[in-house]
Design goal:
Layout (H helix, E strand, L loop, with lengths): L10 H9 L7 H11 L4 E4 L6 H11 L10 E4 L3 H14 L8 E4 L5 H8 L5 E4 L1 H9 L10 E4 L2 H6 L3 H8 L7 E6 L4 H10 L4 E4 L9 E8 L5 H16 L5 E4 L3 H13 L4 E4 L5 H12 L5 E4 L14 E4 L6 H8 L8 E8 L4 H11 L21 E6 L9 H9 L9 E6 L4 E6 L3 H11 L8 E3 L3
Parallel strand pairs: 1-6, 1-7, 2-4, 2-5, 3-4, 5-6, 8-13, 9-11, 9-12, 10-11, 12-13
Antiparallel strand pairs: 14-16, 14-17, 15-16
Helix pairs in contact: 2-3, 3-4, 6-8
Length: about 475
């Protein structure tokens, strides 16, 4: 049976699953949740998009005691982007359970503000290893009551060199705990870490979904380095022609300077593009991801910092301007498309000197490599994104809520509900997607009329 009601879940979580349209468990949920709920350690191989966050999320929430103001669960993630995504998901799952406090602890946020918030211990902490360890060493984070440790995308954390931090963190945790380790791949290092951190874990390999298999068309083009920009324009224009509507694409480069060069070129050709790489400040990275997720830009050009933790439900195209360096990176790149039963295309450019690496990727992934001709069309995908993002200099600290912003925009702001998209509120800022043609008038009206009779600075991101 794959219905959540067949599990020994508290009623609030069954209601949460129903409210989110989780009619049936995905394979990773059906295979891992019985063991997680029984208190066993679990070592699970599962891709992003397989439903693993709900698997460990429902498991740790099921035994959480809201009346005990202690940190009972810790989730470690490789990147700030993934930690934010996991934190948001857990908050949604816990919405039916009163008084649950969750904190996200990552770099890029002042340490002092986090220390002050930790004075009232959260029930759940989600964060990156470096920042979590820093709090443990200064004793601002107390884990003496911890029940559950989750390592999400453990293979990525090992690739990024976090193993020493993870082992130092584990040394600060109670020995009597449940440890859940989720990884997209199972290299020998993962098994070694599992042996050191877990007790007789249940080993599970799960498929990504229980509906139709992922439909990702993998296309390889032989392209000289000097022709990559023109080739990219042709691929984007061809995808727009196929989709016959506004189309988004994720474009990967191996080097940061190439990310900037490609995004600058696309913008000069009338394609709305943003750049994402490690040289950007954390706030800039967050705002870029937010604008891409709410359809305020057409193309996101990124290094592999975006390969994990980026979850766009309907992304029809991924392009590797530079061929991925290894099979794992290639797998995670193409996994950004063809999600939740949708079809997608993964296009890889390959110079003549990279043929051997392309063949190794194909053999390891189990498909036959065939070379395709570039589309014959000329020109660029010049459709403007349907949305623009307003940034309001006020957030949770100012007690702003999504309903307040929506009311201000659709009341005196003059917009219809269809003109307003995603609303994201952080501690000090709020972001709202609005129809592009109405963004500046909406900005001006918010500046004049305010929100809840209060004036805030309002701008349009990117202007």
């Amino acid at each position: 049976m794959t219905d959540f009601t067949t599990l020994a879940l508290r009623r609030e979580l069954i209601d949460s699953a129903s409210a989110r349209g989780f009619d049936r468990m995905t394979p990773v949920q059906a295979q891992t949740l019985p063991s997680i709920l029984a208190g066993e350690d679990v070592l699970a191989q599962a891709e992003t998009g397989s439903g693993k966050t709900a698997a460990f999320g429902f498991g740790l929430l099921n035994k959480l005691a809201a009346e005990q103001a202690e940190t009972q669960a810790l989730v470690l993630c490789p990147t700030r982007e993934l930690a934010d995504q996991v934190g948001q998901a857990l908050r949604q799952f816990a919405a039916t359970i009163p008084n649950i406090k969750l904190m996200t602890l990552c770099g890029g946020t002042p340490m002092r503000a986090q220390v002050n918030s930790l004075a009232q211990p959260p029930h759940i902490v989600v964060g990156t290893p470096g920042r979590i360890l820093a709090h443990l060493r200064r004793e601002s984070l107390n884990t003496s009551a911890l029940q559950t440790l989750v390592l999400d995308e453990a293979d990525r954390m090992l690739d990024m060199g976090f193993i020493a931090d993870i082992e130092a963190i584990v040394g600060c945790l109670p020995a009597d705990r449940q440890t859940l380790l989720f990884s997209a791949t199972w290299p020998e290092e993962i098994r070694s870490v599992s042996t050191r951190l877990q007790r007789n874990p249940k080993q599970i390999t799960a498929a990504a979904g229980d509906g139709p298999p992922q439909r990702i068309a993998q296309i390889f083009h032989q392209v000289a380095d000097t022709d990559k920009l023109a080739a990219l324009e042709r691929v984007l224009a061809d995808t727009q022609r196929r989709q016959k509507t506004f189309t988004q694409a994720l474009v990967f480069c191996n080097r940061r300077d190439d990310v900037d060069r490609v995004s600058t070129h696309l913008n000069s050709r009338g394609v709305s593009a943003l750049a994402l790489h490690g040289d950007r400040e954390q706030r800039e990275r967050d705002e870029v991801l937010l604008r891409f997720a709410n359809q305020s830009c057409a193309v996101l050009v990124a290094t592999d910092v975006a390969a994990r933790g980026l979850d766009i439900a309907s992304l029809p195209l991924v392009v590797s301007v530079d061929l991925a360096r290894d099979i794992d990176t290639h797998t995670h790149r193409i996994g950004r498309t063809g999600r939740a039963g949708e079809s997608g295309r993964a296009v890889s450019f390959c110079t003549p000197r990279e043929h051997e690496r392309a063949e190794r990727i194909a053999v390891a992934a189990g498909f036959r490599l065939s070379w395709s001709r570039l589309p014959n069309n000329e020109g660029s995908a010049r459709d403007q994104p349907p949305m623009a993002t307003l940034v309001i200099q006020g957030g949770r600290r100012d007690k702003l809520r999504p309903g307040d912003i929506l009311g201000a925009l659709t009341g005196e702001g003059g917009l219809s509900g269809d003109d307003v998209g995603k609303i994201e509120i952080t501690t000090v800022r709020a972001y709202v997607a609005v129809a592009r043609s109405k963004a500046k008038p909406a900005r001006d009206r918010l500046r004049q009329a305010g929100i809840k009779k209060r004036r805030f600075r309002v701008g349009v991101l990117g202007d």
